[in-house]
Amino acid sequence: MSTGTALATDPHVVSCTLAPRFEAVRTAREFARTTLEDWGLGDLFDDVALVASELVTNALRHALGQREPSRVPTQLTPQLAAGSLPIRISLVHRAPQVVCAVSDPSSAGPVAREADFVAESGRGLHLVDSFSRSWGWHPLAGAGKVVWALFDARGPETAAEPPLPNLGRHRRSA
Q1: Phi-psi domain of 10 (left: phi exceeds 0; alpha: psi -120 through 50; beta: other)
Q2: Which of the 8 DSSP states describes residue 40?
Q3: Which residues does 166 contact at the CB level (< 8 Å), separation at least 6?
Q4: Alpha carbons 155 and 126: distance in angstroms, whole number
Q5: Higher pLDDT, 20 or 16
Q6: Which string of DSSP letters, residue by residue, matches 46-88?
Q7: pLDDT in tens, 72-108
Q8: Do residues 133 and 171 make contact, with C-beta atoms less than 8 angstroms apart?
Q9: Is 16 helix (H, G, I), strand (E, B) or coil?
Q10: In angstroms, rounded to a whole number, what is the distance separating the alpha carbons of residues 5 and 34?
Q11: C-alpha–C-alpha distance, residues 19 and 86, integer Å
């Protein structure tokens, strides 16, 4: 399983460091379920979990250079010592929004491919685009990047308010 959850001083900003193994996808989903339920936002779970799964899978496949999920290491490699696990999922709740962000060690940005409906993979960013209000990425200082997706977390009490503006898709922050 993963290394665990770290609760920051703000209970609406939580992160979980993921081991570089395919089981990290399941751990990310469990982390999303627990966090959203704690925030009273369990109704967002399906969308957030799907997006989290896609972003973590992309980090495992592309950022760690593992093309096939079955080839993701089941053990930590010497380069990935326990103190420097490379993938982290974070959830941030700032009403009326929730952000799901996945950071990884690659500085290369995600690239949405032309959808091939016969292929077993390659549709992940299209799913992220479909199930989130907006998404994007930006490089991290030094090395690595964070890919984020924004979700509308309005409850029934704010449903009468005007919709939030679309922030655009595939933005890269400088």
Answers
A1: beta
A2: T
A3: 133, 134
A4: 26
A5: 16
A6: HHHHHHHHHHHHHIIIIIS--SSGGGS-SS--TTS-GGG--EE
A7: 444 444 444 433 447 999 999 999 999 999 999 998 8
A8: no
A9: strand
A10: 11
A11: 8
